[in-house]
Amino acid sequence: MRKLKLFALPYILWMVVFTVLPMFLIVYYAFTNAPGNSAPTLEHFFKAIDPMYMKILLRSIWIAFLCTALCLLLGYPVAFLLARARNGAVWSLFFILPMWMNFLLRTYAWMSILENTGILNSLFVAMGLGQMELLYNENAVILGMVYNFLPFMILPIYTNLQKQDVSLLEAAQDLGCNGWRVFTRVTLPLSMPGVVSGITMVFMPAVTTFAISRLLSGGKFMLFGDIIEQQYLSTGNWNVGSMLSLIMLAIILLSMGLMGRFGSDTKDGGGML
Amino acid sequence: MSNQDALIEIRDVCKLFTDDGDEKQAVDHISLTIRRHEFVTLLGPSGCGKTTTLRMIAGFETPTSGAIYIDGKDVSAVPPYKRKVNTVFQRYALFPHLNVADNIAFGLTVKKLPKDVIAQKVDAMLRMVGLQGYNKRKVTSLSGGEQQRVAIARALVNEPEVLLLDEPLGALDLKKRKEMQIELKNMQQKLGITFVYVTHDQEEALTMSDTVVVMRGGTIQQVGTPQDIYNEPRNRFVADFIGESNIIDGIMPEDERVVIGDVSLDCVDKGFAPNEPVDVVIRPEDIYIVTQSDKGQFKGTVESVVFKGVHYEMQVRDTAGFLWLIQDTSMFAEGMEVGLIVRPEDIHIMRKSDDPNAAVYREEEAL
Question: Which of A76, A139, A174, A197 is found 20 to 30 A from B25 (Cα to Cα)?
């Protein structure tokens, strides 16, 4: 036992230095006028709940919600087809492969596709449809987010569907279900753990995203992640930035708790990746 | 249809599976008639085609050639959900997201029956399988035997014309299995539903069935009552698969006489060609041991003795070198010189040519 505990030491050290300590610092900065003044204060909280920031927070949540819904709508059928396909594992590689590239690179790729002189617009012009304003708006941001986060929706659902017991589907058929009813009455309810972890894994990064929104909106359009980044890097107000991060954290914990309640009925299956 | 009572007719059905270019003949030209209210067991070792046959009746597999008729109608193009058959699956296949009552009610809610009718039927079923009050339990919290009962209830509540059971007792321990065998048989008799039962357990087949269908390598070896199959096996495979038996080469010089080695015995079989080579089957419990070795038809030495509870199982090597398996309530010590006696009516003669697998068999034995 003693030896085993020793092996856990580097991990504990790592956790303390890179997770617990930064967390502690964020809380410290959020509630004090550090550096310099360590007297507790709620000043930054009142600054952070400024209507301007809250509007952006609501927009971030709304965009993250839209992005998650779109990912689910697109991802479920894809996961279903992959799970039923003969070479599903090979096909799923096409969805995993882009994840091996840096997401900034992929976002820049989208910019060159969407920009006024980009691939799509060149095509439109050639077809006589004229140029369209594709980049630097909300739709471009949502497109970029959906593109970046879609694999996180597909994979847990795919894993779940693939593990489903074929004899359960046969039992449903045997008891009078046609193909559609087998899906609604057995496949879908059994895949809920996969759906829940997919939603969690898309919503979390979506609500905190910053670079994608800044690049694809051309800076016209701020999300909560961008605000936090701005507080740290350009405004230099670490205290308000820390308070904003804490608010974000609270929202994430809240939504995780909600999802957890959904998921608790249907244990196993799905699984996080 | 030739037979008024016929409920399921399997006519010259083949099933070929193709897997990565490899073709496997799972079912090879089988024909079988299953009558209404009959308890039919498809019996055979794994890979004999029994489960494939069952799955074709259920509609999960389509015959490669031939046709299956249920109630006189060709069901080849009928999907499983439109067939009046229900299945009890090998691993139960209960829906883990539903409780016991909802599992049983599944088929009825698909048919959109009124809620109170469903509740009534579910309760009646729970009572029948001895699980009153289990309505709200999670199926994952039940024991194997209880899950089995839910699976049976879930199928029977739909009042199918045929209940298909795919090795339903395979996962239960011996005692539970024996109990369920009797319960299933009682249920079948009470409800009057046709049961088609798949198993590799010959004892189970003999205990429960009206008709046993012995299968091997995708073909039917013999169809008959349990007594027929046991007492009059049609070939070496059936004799060997059903119970234990001594199978020995012999020659029939004339009717009602068989020669084994240099021993000539009376028997009751006739109709063989003069001097036709035959397989002789003698069950271990049909051989009597006498201590005076000269009084026996065969002379031999006891090589091993095993106590089996009800009887002793002994191996006796005769002077010609054949090792006889014998069951007797008395014990004869190892190394003892004994005589063996067989009554004429306990000798069963099989034509070697009756056995489609005779060649395969000899090959297997040579290995």
Answer: A174
Please report the ipTM that was assigned to this predicted complex: 0.81
Chain B contact set for A173 (CB, 8 A): 59-60, 79-81
Q: Out of B79, B96, B107, whose CB is closest to A175?
A: B107
> Which residue's structure tokens are 């003069």?
B274
A165 at B interface, C-beta within 8 A: yes
Q: How many domains, chain A? A: 2
Please give the residue of chain B at the shortest CA–CA distance from A190: B97
Structural domains of chain B, count: 2
Q: Do residues B76 and B9 make contact, with C-beta atoms less than 8 angstroms apart?
A: no
The verdict on residue B263 lying in a domain is yes
Which residues of chain A lie closer than 8 angstroms to B158, CB-CB?
Answer: 175-176
User: Is A202 among the domain residues?
Assistant: yes
**Encoding tokens for residue B205?**
């087949």
Question: B122 near B101, Cβ under 8 Å?
Answer: yes
> Left (φ > 0), alpha (ψ -120 to 50) or beta: where does B112 sit?
left
Same domain? For B63 and B119 the reply is yes
Q: What does pLDDT average to in each consecutive run of 10 residues of chain A (273 residues)?
A: 76 90 92 84 90 91 94 96 88 84 87 85 84 83 92 94 93 94 95 92 89 84 87 89 92 84 51 38
- Domain of B140, CATH number, reads 3.40.50.300
For chain B, say whether A185 makes contact (Cβ under 8 Å).
Answer: yes
